[in-house]
Amino acid sequence: MCGIIGIVGTAPVEARLIVSLKRLEYRGYDSAGVAGFTASGVERRRAAGKLKNLEAVLAAQPLIASVGIGHTRWATHGPPTVGNAHPHQAGRVTLVHNGIIENFAELKAALTAEGRVFQTDTDTEVVAQLLDRELGSKPPLAAFKATLDQVRGAFALVVMIDGEPGMLLGARNGPPLVIGHGDGEMFLGSDALAVGPFTNRVSYLEDGDFVAIEHGAARVFNQAGQPVDRPAQVVPQSPALMEKGNYRHFMEKEIHDQPEGCQRTIAAYVDALTARAAMPGGIDFAVLERIQIVACGTSYIAGLIGKYLIEPLADLPVDIEVASEFRYRQPALRPGSLVIAMSQSGETADTLAALRWCQARGMRSAAVVNAAGSTMAREVDVVWPIHCGPEIGVASTKAFTAQICVLTALAIAAARARGRIDAGEEQRLVRVLLEAPRLIAESINLEDAVRGVAAEVAKARDVLYLGRGPMYPLALEGALKLKEISYIHAEGYAAGELKHGPIALVDENTPIVILAPFDSYFEKSASNMSEVMARGGQVVFITDPEGQAHAPAGARVVVTTPRCDPLIAPLVMSAPIQLLAYHVAVLKGADVDQPRNLAKSVTVE
Ligand code: F6R
Question: Which of 442, 458, 484 is a domain's end point?
Answer without folding.
Answer: 442
